[in-house]
Amino acid sequence: MFLINCPYCGERDQSEFSCGGEAHIVRPKQPTELSDDQWAEYLFMRKNIKGVQFERWNHVHGCRKWFNMVRDTSNDKIHAIYKMGEKPPVE
Amino acid sequence: MKNKYSIFSLIKNAFSQHENWKQAWGDPEPKREYEAIIIGGGGHGLATAYYLAKKHNMRNIAVLEKGWIGGGNTGRNTTIIRSNYLWDASAGLYDHALKIWENLSQELNYNIMFSQRGVMNLAHNLQDVRDLKRRTHANRLNGIDAVWLNTDQVKKFCPIINISPDIRYPVLGGTLQRRAGTARHDAVAWGYARGADEMGVDIIQNCEVNGIKRNGDHVEGVETSKGFIKTKKIGVVAAGHSSVIANMAGLKLPLESKPLQALVSEPVKPIIDTVVMSNAVHAYVSQSDKGELVIGAGTDAYVSYTQRGSHDVVEGTLKAILELYPIFSRMKMLRQWGGIVDICPDASPIISKTNIKGLYFNCGWGTGGFKATPGSGDLFAHTIANDEPHKLNAAFNLNRFVSGDLVDEHGAAAVAH
User: Fold this and answer.
1) What is the pLDDT of residues B210-228, one digit of tens each?
2) Does residue A21 belong to the interface with chain B, where contact is any CB pair within 8 Å?
3) Is residue A31 a part of any domain in this protein?
4) Which of residues 46-75 of A touch B (CB under 8 A)?
5) pTM
6) Which domain holds residue A54?
């Protein structure tokens, strides 16, 4: 449990947000040309990092906008928050 | 058995003030090489080592545990055992485990306090009723005991439940598996550790794995906090940290690790003599032999390795508990904790080979791995020893995420994952 600084609404309780999982997984441009292995990689395989991870979050009980977050999953400390479409910060 | 526990050994040791009991398992230093290494000294890992030694005669093996045995999710779960899963593959897997549970105390010569007090799953809306009735039929076709109870029968079986039609989630009925129940989770780890140790398995505690050495497509050993150990076969049973170990071998798994919480109340006199679970409101409760109410909450909806969990999750669970059991309204909660569970997209486990030769994974048990401990160990030992799965765990391979042949127990299991 932690506070999240929504880029649109400011600091709110984490329970107002929902996590959309790992960020920057790009949808394949040519889906018909993908092998089963490549589909599995895109659909199911996750880094699931213990440490600094890039994630998508949605302020679902607030402005309902999506944004990205850099969070350390070993201590839930948030390092950076940036809007969709912006470049991820280099750590 | 060198140190068999019995009524006679209990009497004999009483005369020496119980000061001469032999150590139940040793504290060896790691050898330079083992036939196989199990990473993770929880129930599943220790059971794997036990069955590797007992059924496959692999005695030169080690279990590496970064903390103390049974100190992870084995000691953090709510000890519920049942096998009333919907799909045939799951039913086979979990009922295999339940059949081993039924004789495990005798087999291990260790009282794991297995208690078949029944597990009841409640239905709160018409869809629940349909789903649970369907599951009851599926269970019975698979030879698993299951009965449907109407609201009055639910009340009769567990009289403290509030069956008022006016509550937010009224009780419309439930299913009951009488062979299901609970066991003492620490004793399971200790019993398997003692059994494995006796057959020559090295149980090495406070030994953290920091790396997996690969040579092309096969494994050569593990880097640990106690130095490099050579081996040709590695079985990873690291629960919430499975992805961390997989990353060391350059492998990605379809897992997300999340905190799952549980809590216990102050101890009270016997009030609930079964286990009651509710899928819709995600509340389940039983009573330990010490008298504490054991309450399972849900997972946080984001990846975290913090072993804490959020307060709002506990609040949600307790709201549901209090509506179903108003009698608990003035009870105090004694302890709350979290464990990190590794959840698969289809909420079924992975007991599988990988595309790296000699590297095996037993993971993805998510929120419900304890019940499967003996079966999981048995089948994983079979997979490691023969380099191919047993027919009961063939469906739970890693390749199902490529083929699409998932074992989708999401919501079909008795509690929402």
Assistant:
1) 999 999 999 999 999 999 9
2) yes
3) no
4) 46-50, 53, 55, 73-75
5) 0.96
6) 3-26+36-83
